[in-house]
Write a structure and sequence with these properties.
Blueprint lengths: L1 H22 L14 E6 L3 E2 L5 E4 L5 E5 L8 H4 E4 L8 E6 L4 E6 L8 E6 L15 E7 L12 H17 L18 E3 H16 L5 H17 L10 E3 L15 E2 H17 L5 H15 L16 E2 L18 H9 L7 H8 L10 E2 L2 E2 L33 H18 L16 E4 L2 E4 L11 H5 L6 H14 L1 H4 E2 L2 E2 L3 E2 L4 E2 L5 H15 L2 H7 L2 H9 L6
Parallel strand pairs: 3-9
Antiparallel strand pairs: 1-2, 1-4, 4-7, 5-8, 6-7, 8-9, 10-11, 12-13, 14-15, 16-17, 18-19, 20-21
Length: about 550
């Protein structure tokens, strides 16, 4: 009896336990929506984004996003956006393809030219099944150049007139009111530059000769400049790089460069001798000007700057002496320094100084070809283009030869063509480089300054490079001039001609104008048009003597 009772209890317990387990079974969880990704983004049907910045994108682009799942349309407007440079949302139309797994975004209006834009897709973008975009998207692109002309078309001659006149305002309107010398840059205040002033003096001669300034106006400015220089700081006759335009006292270029700068002095003397040859009338004021220029020219102790060697030295300081220890050796912008040193009627150098100091006993030669173009002298690819400008504002390279180059015009032309072809080929893929947008030389760059060249290229074009090469490459230079003026003029053309430099890849246009970049444009345009400055400088009897002494011919 007891046994049967126990069996009954066990059976009941088993039944109850079974019921309890059945009642406690959990409800299976709802499935979690799968996240999805963007498998491709294309622009204008062909160009695929892959995380880089994109340049030269049409101003009415079609942006196509392909996702791994159909999208919930209502989530798209707030989660796929086109942003402008200030993070403003650009109004766009939206369409869908492939069962809503593809979104096409098109701006409602034409985008601003040469501007940065960002395409963003956020992780709150939702699929029809409720999944979320697994990774946010943020890609940038730069819109293309506005190809419309920014100014009315004029003849090339009129355009060259305009560039010369407008650029000359830098030296005339912005010239220092006391000294008449050129400010280093448009923001330099009382700081004036000696070498850049030499370029400005040559520009003044060109503007007087073209009738843009009267002879009387030009003569008066020259008298102001020369009178100031007679009492300004100089060291063994050589001037510093920078002077105070009010007092004539040296302004140090650097901690150890607080005295003579022989190369800057040679640029100044090149200009002064050119002016001396131009203001040649037998009237008292012009006679006096020529005499005052002669006194400045004759007191430069060129041979003293040999420092006891067969080389010229760039710097000397009254308290640090030769600590800069920088010989002037080629190939660079300083050929004119040796020619003037050999031409001096009072302190000349001998030919051995040129051969050993400048030409490095023949090691100045190059002889290699770049883009099929032979380069007689200098480093690979020729260096920055100011090498072919500064010494040749007055020194006419046409047919000029010596022991190291058969024709200095060919040297400068080939140097320019190498620079041009480098930019045209654009192997580094910098946005904007082309056969109409070229020219690497020393200039301002974003947050700094550098001597740009094919071997030191940061993506910055300086208008002076192509413009000042006009005598060497007239077709290529005029193409660049038209592009700078007509296509980029709204951003590049300013109060004193073309701004110093620009970078389309960085969307940067300089606010600056520099004397050493503005002056060569005026002078070399004039040499292309009339050879005026070449003819004047080369007419100096001392220069002919110096060239002959150094073994030059063909002048």
């Amino acid at each position: 009896m007891k046994k049967n009772h126990l069996l009954l209890i066990a059976a009941i317990t088993c039944v109850l336990h079974s019921c309890s387990k059945k009642d406690e079974t959990p409800t299976p969880p709802a499935p979690v929506p799968s996240s999805f990704s963007c498998s491709d983004i294309t622009i204008n049907g062909s160009q695929s984004f892959n995380g880089k910045n994109y340049f030269d994108v049409g101003r009415q682009p079609s942006l196509r996003f392909k996702f791994g799942a159909p999208l919930e349309r209502s989530s798209v407007a707030d989660n796929i956006v086109l942003l402008g440079a200030t993070a403003n949302v650009i109004n766009c139309s939206t369409s869908f393809e492939d069962d809503d797994s593809v979104v096409v975004l098109k701006p409602s209006s034409t985008l601003t030219a040469l501007s940065q834009f960002k395409v963003s897709a956020y992780t709150s973008l939702t699929s029809k099944s409720g999944g979320k975009l697994n990774n946010a998207i943020s890609l940038s692109f730069v819109s293309s150049i506005d190809s419309t002309d920014k100014f009315p078309r004029i003849s090339d001659n009129e355009l060259l007139d305009l560039i010369q006149q407008k650029t000359f305002k830098y030296f005339w309107d912005l010239g220092h009111p006391v000294s008449g010398l050129a400010r280093e840059r448009n923001s330099s205040g009382d700081l004036v530059t000696t070498g850049g002033s030499g370029f400005g003096i040559m520009a003044l001669v060109a503007m007087v000769d073209r009738g843009f300034k009267t002879r009387a106006e030009g003569l008066q400015r020259m008298k102001t400049i020369v009178s100031f220089l007679q009492t300004a700081d100089n060291f063994h006759g050589a001037f510093p790089h920078w002077l105070d335009g009010n007092t004539g006292k040296v302004i140090p270029f650097s901690a150890n460069d607080n005295g003579a700068d022989l190369v800057e002095t040679s640029f100044l003397m090149q200009g002064l001798l050119t002016a001396r040859q131009y203001f040649n009338q037998a009237v008292p004021d012009e006679v006096a000007l020529r005499q005052d220029i002669d006194s400045l020219w004759r007191r430069v102790e060129w041979s003293w700057f040999q420092n006891g060697t067969n080389s010229l030295y760039w710097h000397w300081s009254p308290d640090k002496q030769w600590v800069m220890n920088m010989p002037v050796s080629g190939w660079n912008e300083a050929l004119i320094t040796y020619i003037l040193a050999a031409s001096s009627p009072t302190h000349p150098i001998q030919k051995a100084v040129y051969d050993q100091g400048w030409a490095k006993n023949g090691n100045i030669r190059n002889g290699s070809s770049y883009y099929g173009i032979p380069l007689p002298l200098g480093d690979a690819f020729g260096g920055p283009l100011f090498f072919s400008h500064y010494s040749f504002l007055g020194l006419n390279p046409t047919g000029l030869k010596d022991a190291y180059a058969d024709n200095y015009f060919v040297q400068n032309k080939n140097h320019t063509l190498i620079n041009y072809n480098y930019c045209k080929i654009n192997a580094r893929g910098f946005f904007g480089y082309s056969d109409a947008c070229w020219g690497l030389t020393a200039s301002d760059i974003p947050n700094g300054y550098t001597a740009s060249s094919p071997s030191n290229d940061v993506g910055v074009i300086a208008p002076t490079a192509a413009i000042s090469s006009l005598p060497y490459t007239p077709e290529e230079s005029m193409r660049a001039i038209r592009f700078f003026y007509y296509k980029l003029g709204d951003k590049l053309w300013g109060d004193y001609g073309f701004k110093d430099a620009f970078s389309l890849k960085d969307l940067w246009f300089a606010d600056s104008f520099l004397a050493i970049d503005q002056g060569p444009q005026i002078v070399m345009i004039e040499n292309y048009r009339s050879k005026l400055l070449w003819n004047l400088f080369m007419s100096s009897p001392e220069v002919k003597t110096g060239l002959t002494k150094l073994g030059f011919s063909g002048f």
